[in-house]
Amino acid sequence: MKRIGIGLSDFKHLIEEDFYYFDKTKFIDEVIKDGAQVKLFARPRRFGKTLNMSMLKYFFDIKKADENRKLFKNLYIEKTESFKEQGQYPVVFLSLKDLKATTWEEMERKIIIILSDFFSEYEYLLNELTGISFENLKNIIYRKADIDELTTTLKFLTKILYEKYNKKVMVLIDEYDSPLVSAYINGYYKKAKDFFKTFYSIVLKDNNYLQMGILTGIIRVIKAGIFSDLNNLRTYTILSDVYTDSYGLTEEEVEKSLKDYGIEAEISNVKDWYDGYKFGDSEVYNPWSILNFLQDKELRAYWVDTSGNDLINDVLKKITKDTVRALERLFNGEGLRQNISGTSDLSKLLDENELWELLLFSGY
Question: Which of 76, 186, 323, 344 could form a disulfide with 319 if both were Cys (CB 3.0 to 4.6 A apart)?
Answer without folding.
Answer: 323
